[in-house]
Design a protein that fits this description.
Chain lengths: ~90, ~160
């Protein structure tokens, strides 16, 4: 079909091998006493900080684009001269 | 610096953050999936519309659960009738109780007190009041005993530490 078997295997085999190695490696460490509440909320706060950081960047870019390319901006009044560019 | 440079930096930063949060989540889940070896088993059974508990020593409780602070517990959660969900909001414990299946979740209560247990999966008429009380008690050494060796390692430390092996 779409993907040749050899290429599919080239991707699938390392993935399977890597996953099982990682799993075995990390299984050794598991069983640690943790405080559920602290870990879960810590993860949640981390996620929120990241989500809001990316959100702020996206909103900032949108605000910039809207302001920069507004109709009343003198920079948008004329077309760029292409003379001598090619 | 062209537009594409800025865009690739942006894409790179976002991908890095996603990988970072994904790895953190995986890391936490690994520990949530593997209870410590000295964890005590508590059988949790949900049915319309109350919770029952059975301890390792055979002691049974209805509508109330008594645990000791600093001791890790594994809940073996199941249901007698329909789907329920075992939730202790303050301890971030949430696991479905499914008939014919035993789900595991472990927790180490780190502060004594009284906590709410609430069914978190709609299970019929009285679902909203399918609650129980969790009492977390301070670990008290058996009177006359100077040794505290029978108390799990986790209690002896002021701060919970890694209990390897
Ligand atoms: Cu319910």
């Amino acid at each position: 079909m779409g993907i040749p078997l050899r290429q599919a295997l080239l991707v699938a085999i390392p993935l399977v091998v890597m996953f099982s190695i990682l799993q075995a490696a990390f299984a050794q460490e598991a069983g640690k006493v943790i405080i559920n509440r602290v870990e879960v909320w810590g993860l949640f706060y981390k996620g929120m900080v990241i989500a809001f950081t990316i959100g702020a960047i996206v909103m900032g870019v949108i605000a910039y684009v809207v302001f920069r390319f507004r109709e009343s901006n003198p920079k948008n009044a004329s077309r760029t001269s292409m003379e001598g560019r090619h | 610096m062209g537009h594409s440079t800025v865009e690739w930096v942006y894409v790179g930063v976002v991908v890095a953050l996603l990988i970072y949060i994904g790895a953190s989540a995986w890391d936490v889940e690994r520990f949530l999936d593997h209870p410590p070896k000295d964890a005590k088993v508590v059988k949790v059974t949900g049915q319309q519309w109350f919770w029952t508990f059975e301890h390792e020593d055979g002691k049974k409780e209805l509508g109330e659960l008594h645990l000791v602070k600093g001791v890790p517990y594994v809940f073996e959660i199941t249901s007698r009738d329909v789907n329920h969900s075992f939730n202790i909001p303050d301890l971030t414990v949430l696991m479905d109780a499914v008939p014919g299946r035993i789900n595991h979740m472990w927790v180490m209560p780190d502060a004594s007190g009284e906590y709410l247990i609430q069914c978190r999966e709609y299970c019929g008429f009285s679902h909203y009041q399918m609650r129980a009380k969790l009492f977390v008690e301070e670990a008290i050494p058996v009177s006359g005993e100077t040794e505290v060796s029978n108390i799990p390692v986790s209690v002896q430390e002021a701060k919970p530490v890694i209990a390897n092996n």
